[in-house]
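A quick word before the example. In earlier lectures we treated sequence and structure as two separate objects. From today on, think of them as two lines of the same record. Here is protein-synthesizing GTPase written that way.
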Amino acid sequence: MVESTTNKLGQPHLMVQDAKTVDPSKLTALTPEVISRQATINVGTIGHVAHGKSTVVKAISGVQTVRFKNELERNITIKLGYANAKIYKAEIPSIIPSSTTAATAATTAAPTTATDDDDANEEKEEGEEIPTVIIPGSRPSHPMYTSRGSSHADTFTDPITNITYHLRRHISFVDCPGHDILMATMLNGAAVMDGALLLVDLVKMDAALAQQEQIRKFVVGTVADSAPILPISAVLRYNVDLVCEYLVHKIPVPVRDFTSVPRLIVIRSFDVNKPGQDVSSLQGGVAGGSILQGVLRVGDEIEVRPGIVTKKEVATAEGPSTVLVCSPIYSRISSLYAESNDLQYAVPGGLIGVGTRIDPTLTRADRLVGQVLGLRGKLPEVFAEIEISYYLLRRLLGVKTSDGGKQAKVQKLAKGEILMVNIGSTGTGGKVESAKTYAKISLTQPVCTQEGEKIALSRRVDKHWRLIGWGEIKRGKKIEVLEP
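And the structure line, produced from the sequence above:
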């Protein structure tokens, strides 16, 4: 039945999935049936505005992430953009770096094929040095690595060079806005990233080496300390194949939790029905997001929290009082998609579109953004107030002082001040009720989360939200969840 459905949708070139027989305990981020249809690794593109982030994503995936009218008019990214790409490796002898040992050389000289053993070898080689500077004449006339769109076949032969390429990775790019006033949007995208590409625009040739040294000094002691620096031109597609190679070798395959109860962060939601559409052909609302853990299947009964938040009057010893209550939205999964690829089950990684039977008016125009989707009765509690342990940065980043001196120090949290709190994909306002060992923050919008969740804190500086620190939820004030 699954195969016939797949063929009807015109995707016989992709591997068949079966939601009934799949064993989550045996799935990995490189399982062929999974990466044939959906991305399993999330890579963010970060950097300053107009430095070519969206152009690099388009060069690798072929997808234009700038889609909205106001983005096209200003030629900048405002909302998070998503694009999936498959990374392929050629079935020919590998180019051997000069630093490679004789034993490794003997192994890599043999033709490579898309087998499980090859995946294991690639994982072992992730720590191996790949030359950042390419010696003239050391590269073949054809690229060792290349990329195609998410719906492309898993194996193909280049008609010009007659070289066969095999699928190695399926990556989802999270294209973040570069403007400093959109920092909160970038932090929402960072919640699902496994790795990142930092784009720096090199306008002058003589500034390249100086900027390289500045970057290396800035990242000393961080996770990006040994990150490679690649000179590329996305417009001319120069060295884009090397970016694909480094994505395979340098970004480790993330360890995913496939066996826990599924949970998805809603990053966008929309109504797919067109104006004037016939009633008989109306479809339910669609929620798009990234699965944090577990496996979602077509037909699963789901719940969206917090859902619809309302106020309720209750009687107390001091008289009537108003409290918040939430009514979760219950539905069933009618379809799963990764871009145009239909899925029978979805795993952590990449952006997944979940087709539901929810009233489309509840999902249109990103109304479900920040909510959490999962199996009915299996989601965490909803908090209206959180108590956090927090850590502040020493200085504000990216803020110029009037005299050109050092950046301003980050002041301590003050009682009564308003902060921007990023919890998962949710950005909500928060009022500081107290700030001692732990900070107590009253949230503007209730959030479905749990103890131990990491959050980002931003403060309003010169009319812009600036990142000032991060924290971890220790406990909080829960609100009542109404059952149907």
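Notice the following. The first strand starts at residue 41 and ends at 47. We will return to this example when we discuss secondary structure assignment.
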